[in-house]
Amino acid sequence: MTYDALAPAASAGGFPVKRSLVVLGAGESGIGAALLAKQQGYDVFVSDGGVIKDIYRQELAVNNISFEEGHHSWDKILGADEIVKSPGIPEKSDLMKKVREKQVPVISEIELAYRFSKDARIIAITGSNGKSTTTALTYHIFKTAGLNAAMVGNIGISYARQVATAPAEYYIIEVSSFQLDDITSFKPDVAILLNITPDHLDRYDYKMENYVASKFRIAMNQTKEDYFIYCMDDPEIMSHLSKQTIYSTSIPFTIMEPLKKEGGFIANDQLNIQLNDDPVIVSIYDLALKGKHNLYNSMAAGIAGKTMDIRKEKIRESLTSFKSLEHRMEYVTTVRGVDFINDSKATNVNSLWFALESMEQPVILIMGGVDKGNDYTAIQDLVKEKVKGIVCLGVDNQPIQDALTAFTPNMVNTSAMKDAVQEAFKLATKGDVVLLSPACASFDLFKNYEDRGKQFKEAVREL
């Protein structure tokens, strides 16, 4: 299907023709880019090889933006002055091969949005795990301080949509490696790199060094007036830092040792943020987010707040009052003494490792889905120590069984969420926790991880 907006009047009298911009992909990112580009005077065309959601199709029509779905018009795409590529489109696709061959300039949606929000302060957060939690916590700090802040990117509405419809003074952005791959000038005032563990390697020629380099693009345009906040306990980050020069002010955080310089650390059961000679100190027992991994997230968000001169009282208040995100270690309910926790957003093994590491009760684990070449040996010790039973939920559960059967007394196969929850409840006794933490993508049985999490909560409430 193709919808053509009213063609703009032909240029006359020496006026320049509008720059043509093609947006590839009509998800939230693509639609946001289209709306912003249209507002800024571009001649916009949206092309999606699949089916566009009704709500997005209506937005395009209402805003008089030409689009097509179910196919690609090569003349329009390859004739564009510039292309905005949605992050879900791999470079290996025939579409991108043709675009690269034609040498049409390609940018990401965050690059487009940055062009029209340079007067704002930008805090960008990336990493393999913990991005959404840290983004939400950072936003909570800024809102608690009374600042005009917006939370955008992978976590909710697109950065470009926000710039087009409700500009803010501060943008707290969750960014993925896919988005960073197509930036040219995007420069956050504060860049946070939480951690780097194997993920999405199929998009990086199965080379870890390519994935690491992609993550580090978050700091590539920064200058000494900007901040680069990083985890000094992460071996991939530290290895890359030994080879790459960072031009911004670097601020580390660690749970391994007290720091004598500026940064974040844990000492005497207290979280410490040392910056600008005015430390923030919070008891780890008062933090809203529990678990070792959340110490990192809390330090990173707190440091970001401190770089923007937010008062330490507001940072401390925020770190102790934050409510966790839906689908990320989300407590659902307790049924006959058994707690149920929804961690559907855990789509890789490292996220599952963090979830298990924070558990203090015996665990019945529901896991499985689309396996991205996962190495489950990383969690064998934690499974042996904490997991009473594993309920596999997926079309192909064999890799999980091969890696983990020997490390837990119970292993059950299911192919529907309701069955998985019922089997887990059968294995649980009072004082246990049933944890949905799949370590896999959701697309075999569900629309996305949100759908998976919602079905989990519905099945739990039906017990």
TrEMBL record:
Pathway: Cell wall biogenesis; peptidoglycan biosynthesis. GO terms for cellular component: cytoplasm. It holds the Pfam family Mur_ligase_M. Residues 327-440 form the Mur ligase C-terminal domain. GO terms for molecular function: ATP binding; UDP-N-acetylmuramoylalanine-D-glutamate ligase activity. It catalyses: UDP-N-acetyl-alpha-D-muramoyl-L-alanine + D-glutamate + ATP = UDP-N-acetyl-alpha-D-muramoyl-L-alanyl-D-glutamate + ADP + phosphate + H(+). ATP binds at residues 127-133. It is an enzyme of class 6 (ligase). GO terms for biological process: cell division; cell wall organization; peptidoglycan biosynthetic process; regulation of cell shape. Belongs to the MurCDEF family. This is UDP-N-acetylmuramoylalanine--D-glutamate ligase. It comes from Chitinophaga agrisoli.
